[in-house]
Amino acid sequence: KAGVTQTPRYLIKTRGQQVTLSCSPISGHRSVSWYQQTPGQGLQFLFEYFSETQRNKGNFPGRFSGRQFSNSRSEMNVSTLELGDSALYLCASSFMEGGTGELFFGEGSRLTVL
Amino acid sequence: QKEVEQNSGPLSVPEGAIASLNCTYSDRGSQSFFWYRQYSGKSPELIMSIYSNGDKEDGRFTAQLNKASQYVSLLIRDSQPSDSATYLCAVSYDKVIFGPGTSLSVIP
Lengths: 114, 108
Fold this sequence. Notes:
The structure holds two protein chains of two kinds.
Chain A: E1 5-7, E2 10-13, E3 19-24, E4 31-38, E5 42-50, E6 53-57, E7 64-68, E8 74-78, E9 87-94, E10 104-105, E11 109-113
Parallel strand pairs in A: 2-11
Antiparallel strand pairs in A: 1-3, 3-8, 4-5, 4-9, 5-6, 7-8, 9-10, 9-11
Chain B: E1 4-6, E2 11-14, E3 19-25, E4 32-38, E5 45-50, E6 54-58, E7 61-66, E8 71-76, E9 85-92, E10 96-98, E11 102-107
Parallel strand pairs in B: 2-11
Antiparallel strand pairs in B: 1-3, 3-8, 4-5, 4-9, 6-7, 7-8, 9-10, 9-11
């Protein structure tokens, strides 16, 4: 059974640019959650999608957005990048929504903003 | 703001000893509780989940939950160098919130 796949694994952007990250969940999982991980703040919840609907959102500015497709694949977008957006972005899939199920993480997309 | 706190590390234990990791949470409505392990440069992986008060054992790992005290713990018996990692406590009500993690080092 394939795990959670995130692309790209590494990317470098400059301030003001935008970025799109992709996540393919485990087959059969309909929930996809996104987290930002930094050394100072740890794992911070961005949002969760279930059956193409955003079910929950963390305390991040509107520059952070996401969506989920009918095949459960999800994308997140960060517009007008800032230096502080440099982080590891982790996607996690789950069979159940709302945090009731166990999360399975991808390897992450490491974003560096210059 | 819903918070998850963990005992500050790093925690160092000798090989073969018991490592004790603690976690407290602020939201009394939390329903599911998890421990994840994250090796350096890797993503978190689930090692234990617990949903009701009491103890849950899985091999060398025991998770303990006390909802009245809003407290979750993880005991690792017979600690091995391969257990050296950051341990993340996670709590969920409508979303999964992670604690800051405790770094564990098992000294051979």
